[in-house]
Amino acid sequence: MAQLLARISPIWFAVILFYVLAGIVSPAMLSTGQALNVLQVAALLGLVATGQVIALLVGGIDLSVGGVVTLTNIVATSIMLGQDSSIPLAIAVCLLLGILVGALNGFMVAVLKVAPLITTLAMNSILFGAALVYTGGATRGTAAPAFKIIGQGAVLGIPLSAVAWLAVAIAVAVILRRTIFGRWIYAVGANSEAAALMGVPVKRTLIGAYVMCSVMAVLGGLLITSYIGNPSLGIGEQFLLNSVAAVVVGGAALTGGVGSAVATIGGALFMTVLVSFTNIARVSTGTQYIVQGALIILSVMVYRALAEKRRIT
Amino acid sequence: MNMKQLNRRQALLMGGAALAGGLGALPAFADVASEATIEASSEIAKGVAKKKPFRIGFSNGFSGNSWRTESLASMRKEAEKLKDVVGELIIVDGQGDIAKQVNDIEDLIVQNVDAIMCIPNSGTAVAPVLRKATRAGILTMPFNLPVEGGNYSAYVGVDPVSKGKLISEFFNTELKGKGKIVALGGLPGNSYTAAIWEATQKGLSKDIEILAFKDANWEEDRAKIVMADLIAAHPEIDGVWCDGGQVATGAMKALLAANRPLVPVTGDDYNGILKLYDAEKAKHPSFKILMVSEPTWQSVVALRETVKLVSGQDVPKYQLIGARTITGDNYEKFIKRDLPDGVCVDTDLSDEELKKIFS
After folding, report:
1. Within 10 A of A83 (CB to CB), how many other CB atoms are there?
2. Residue A22 is assigned to a structural domain of this protein
């Protein structure tokens, strides 16, 4: 039993503990409706964070996810124009866009050796600029009715968005843990020189990791487009740092090689419960930010202490 | 502030007549909002005659939404009409960055333009650089969002206090003086939102309880997410105060998703909320709207007043455009069913021009 508990990431204890505490302060948090609402909203951040954890695992970071989400939202709605028949084309174009952005990020980081922070921040700026050029500041189009089902519908009461998110996150977890490519990702993140000596194709792994991260951001962008139905040039900004926070709260190290896609599910849930709780609690926006920031720091500190203790025992 | 009230058409025509005397005939203004009024202060800004053709700079705080896009299109159109006198309109974009905007204005000062117009990213941060420009003999015209202190030539904007008053009267009437409301703001710390909210609170009946005020960053998705949380927390929500029509749309979509009846809501002249009202009003008898517009044609008034100043003509130091309201009774006049949700409908641009911008 103790062994089993030790294998479970501390983030899950943090999520449950915080959810119960939030429920004691605001009983509305514990209602079934609100639990499902948290799941539905967590899926938006969760998908983007599932990509972000891959970037962090290879020792990088992807700050272009905000731009990818925005551009996906803008391009998808402008192609769909409310027509169900245009859904496949919209998804295909957005996925291609994600692959291209990820490949460019990866090429810059792996081949040209530009720091990931700079590369992806610059890419974020380019993508936002592209969205602005594409729309001229005037967004158009809307999501197709059938497309909105994934973001707004439910199956047996469970939000479809959460089902989609969990399916993708688990698939990524399997790729990371059970495939050679997944092992390469961990190896490159832990020590890229040692990995290269062992015959790991470091450059290809890095490029692959950034492509996966961008594709996840595209999926997140498609999901939020489905959730709200309309385009907005500011839609992706919230994911830029929140996705990093969700991954780090989930126990990943910014130095690379440490972290998991499953724990990132917990990280996204924690972040969403946190925001939801501060929305429900009668606190001002300023207090809301302070509480959010303080709890993120606290959770990371507790996580580190627990991890340290485990190493000793 | 001692203000006298002019009809917008009168105000614009007055400007036109004055310009016509010294600058040649002014093209007619495509008036879509003739009932709007402009209140002018008795305090006067002194005009300084500059050499024609004028070089006018415009520092736009950012350009990433449809309001700014339409406003800029209106300004460019007006500049084109005034091309005999406005030789050059130099537009710089602050990209939402407070420091960049200050640098942009510094650059305009170095270029020795005749006048600088601006929509500030921060009402406090641009105050010193506008003072510097004014001292350098450049006429300065902030508009749309206020600038701290009075160290600029003149200002054109919408009065947040009258907006707030109208909104509180709406809730008092629709809720019959009693009920519970939630409020969804724009960007945290935005002083314009705060002023409207403060005026609303002052006017609300004492039996209307405010359950929460939360910021929704002027984003439809954020508004929907925040509202979903508030719905979970509060079984009774009788009204929703929103800063902006996109926020109102997000909030109403959250009520729809939760299978709750739609309730009285406020916002601005965002096409999406009018379309939503049109689609849902029959199913939700309690759904009432009061949209107080934020005219995109403020830029045209600002440009005209700037041209007057550089022509040597005095103008009122402060001009406040009266709030215009869109309700269930008159929304048919404003709704643009063939255009995207993002269109701000209180505009001087024609549907054809809007179609070009939004395509």
Report:
1. 16
2. no
